[in-house]
Amino acid sequence: MRRAGAAPDASTFTFVLKSCSRCHSPGRLPSDLHAQAFKHGCLGARSEHAHVQNALLHEYASRSAVDDARRVFDEMPVRDVVSFSGLLTARLKNNQLDSARMVFDQMPHRDVVSWTAMISAYARASRL
C-alpha cells in the first residue's frame, strides 16, 4: 500500500487491528500500528477514529497489555460501551477483579456482555 503511494485510513487500521487478534501476530505489532495510526491522524475525535481506538484497546486487552489498554482508553475523546468493555476485559484477563469492578461501576451503560464478564469473574474468584 505504501509502495503504491496510498495512505492508510481509519478503516485500514481498524481492519488490520482486528486481523491481528485472529492471527496471533508478534507482540510489538499493536504498538507499531498504534504509532502508525497516530502518524496518519487516525486517533482523533472523528467518529471513524473511535473504531480505530476501540480496536487498538481490544488488541492490547487481548494481549494482557493492561497499561497500554488503559492509556488508549484515557486518551479517547469519546468512550462507548465497547471502550469500557475493552478495558474491563483487560482488567479481568489479568485477574484484577477489584479494578475491573471500578471500571464496571463507571460504565454509563452496562450490557449483557459486561454483566456476564463480571458475574463469571466473581464466580471464578469464589466471590459471589
UniProtKB/TrEMBL annotation:
Organism encoding this protein: Miscanthus lutarioriparius
Identification of the protein by name: Pentatricopeptide repeat-containing protein
Start and stop residues of the PPR repeats: 80-114
Keyword terms, alphabetized: Repeat, Transit peptide
Keyword DNA repair carried by entry: no
BP-aspect Gene Ontology terms: RNA modification
Keyword Cell membrane: no
Single GO term (MF): RNA binding
InterPro entries reported for this sequence: PPR_At4g14850-like_plant, PPR_rpt, TPR-like_helical_dom_sf
Pfam families noted in UniProt: PPR (PF01535)
